[in-house]
C-alpha cells in the first residue's frame, strides 16, 4: 500500500496585514525513507559546531528566538546546510502565492485557494492516483487550508485525506522544508517587486544570485 504524506506551511496570515499570502505543500512518498538523510544533516550541524534546532526561516534570517545568539555567518551557514539537505530529498512541492489586496475578504481568498488546489490535483492526477492513502500534516491554525485540501482531495481523488500530527523527526523536518520553500517563494516575489531589502541580500545576494543559487535548485522539485 502506497502512502503519500503532504506537509503544509503558510506565510502571511490570511486576515492580517501582510502584503502577500503564500501556501506551500511538500509531497513525500513514504516508500522513500529519508531517516539517513535527516541523520546526516544533523551530524553535519554537530560537526560545524552549530545547534541542532528546528529550522524556522524567519527567525533565522532576522536573528530571533533560537537564533538570537548566533552570528550572521553562523546563520548563513545553517541556511546553506539546510538548503543542501533539501536538494537531496526525494520530494516534490507546489506553492501558491496571492496578493492580499486582490481579495475582498479572507473568504474570497479561501475560495481561490480551493480552486487552485483542485486544479493542482487534476493537472497531476496520474501522480496522485498512484497512492492508496493520503495523509496531511498541519500545524495549529490551518483549519481553512485543511478544509480546502480535504474538499479538493475528496472531489478529485474520491478518497478521504487522513489528518495526522507530526510524531517523528522526519515529519518535523519535512514540515520545516515546507517553511523553507515558502520563504524562497516569498523572496522571489519580493525580488521581482524590488522589495527584497537588506536581509535577503545578506543571505541570498542580489536577484541574479538568488535565482541561480537558491530558487533554481528548489524549482527542480516543483510538481
From TrEMBL:
It comes from the Bacteria. This is ABC transporter. InterPro entries: DUF3800 (IPR024524). It comes from Bifidobacterium oedipodis. It holds the Pfam family DUF3800.
